[in-house]
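INFO batch 0412 | record 1 of 1 | parsing
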Amino acid sequence: MEAKTKTHTPNKVRRRKQREAAKEARNEARAIAKFVKAAPRKLRLVIDGIRGKSTEEAASLLRFTPNRVARVIEKVLMSAVSNAENNMQMDPDALYIHQAYVDGGPVIKRFRPRAMGRATPIRKRTSHITIIVKERGDEI
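INFO prediction complete | emitting tokens
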């Protein structure tokens, strides 16, 4: 009798395949921008205004928002739309923002000299922006 050898699949590869299969089942596309040099609190003000809207409406809102972080969010949104169109074969006109959130990234810590030999901390905050888009007809 000949022994059958089983090839071992590393956990990392197995998890990646499971994630890809789950992504196909959910039928959504995402884009993530990491280490954006802006405070999460400022980004959330703009993100809250576009959540749930169609991608065209959100893009026009971001284009005319007088805020520096709106340009970064617009780039992430356009990347998510492009991912949906090219990787998932979705119709770009039927897309809407299913989820949009901002997580805090690492904080760069500096110190500023003050009066009487003291120093006060300065926290330069960074953020991670995630935008997930779906097609309008996919709601359950």
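INFO post-check: The chain has a mean pLDDT of 89.
INFO record closed
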